[in-house]
Amino acid sequence: MKNILLLAVLFITTITFSQKKKVLLVGIDGLQFEELAKVKTPNFDKFNIKKGFNGGLFGTDSQQVTLSGPSWVTILTGVWTDHHKITSNSQNQVSASKSVFNYLKTSNSKLKTASISTWKNINLLLYKDMYLVDFATQGGLDDNSTKIAVDLIEKKGLDFVFVHLDDVDHAGHGYGFGEKYSNAILKMDENIGQLLKATEYRNQNFNEDWFIILVTDHGRDSKGFGHGNQTISEKTIFVGLNRKGNSFFENVNNNTKINTIQELEKQTIPQTAVVPTILKFLEIPIKKEWKLDSQPLIN
Questions:
Q1: Domain spans in the chain, listed from the N-terminal domain onward
Q2: CATH number of the domain at 25-290, please?
Q3: Low-confidence ranges of the chain (pLDDT < 70)
Q4: CA-CA distances (angstroms) from residue 128 to 39, 87, 131, 270?
C-alpha cells in the first residue's frame, strides 16, 4: 500500500512539474485601488491584490509623471523613466530600454508572445521591440481587445499575452468617480471573467499553468478626473496575482494608513516589479546588465 501511495504521489508531482508555464498580464488603465471595494467584482475577488505605486521615487532621477505613457512603459520594461526616457503620452518617443517582449524572445526564441493594446500608444512607445512580438494589435474597444486575447489564449497556445483595457480610464476622465465609473469597473470585471475562463480552459485541456497578473498604470486625483501629479492618490496603483506571492508581496498590508508619498513608496509594491515577476515565473534568468528596478513578487 505504501508503494502504491508513493507512486501516486510521484505521478501527481510529475504531472504538476510538466505543466507548461504561461503568463497573462492584464493592464487596466486608470483604475483607482480604493474604488474596487465599492462595487461587487466576483472576478477581481479571485485575485490576491496588493496596493502599489507608480511615478518613480519622489525627488530622485526616477521620478516620473503619473501619466499612462511613462507608466505603461515602466510596467513593461521594469525600469523607471531615468532609464526608459519616456516622459509623456506623446507617441513621438521610443523607449530607450528593452521590454519584457525583448527579454522573453531573446532568452528563448521559441516563446510566443502577444501585445493587445486598446490604447495604441503603448505599442508605439515600445516600437523597437514590436518586431519581436508574434501577434500585436492596437486601438479599438475593450470588448474587441478582450475577444482577441481570449481567442489567442484558447487557440494559439501563446506563452505570454499582454492585454491593455482602457474603458475605466475613459469613465474617469469623462465623469470622475461615481456611478458611471463604478459601472465601468463592473464591465471590466466581466472582461476579466472572460479571460479567466480562457486560461482555465487551457489549464484543464492542455496541461498548462497560467499565471495571471493584474496591474493598473496610475491612480487619479481626489475627484477621479485627472492624473499626472505626484500625489498619494495619483501614485496609488495595485498589482493582483492569481496565486500567493513571496514575502515581498504578501507583507504589504492594504489597510495600513498611508500619510506620505515616502510611506507609499516604502510600504507598497512598485510597478517595476511586474517584469521581473514574469521572467521569474517563466524561468528566464534575470541579467545584471538589464538593471531592472525591482525584485520579483514570487519565489
A1: 25-290
A2: 3.40.720.10
A3: 1-17
A4: 39, 17, 7, 25
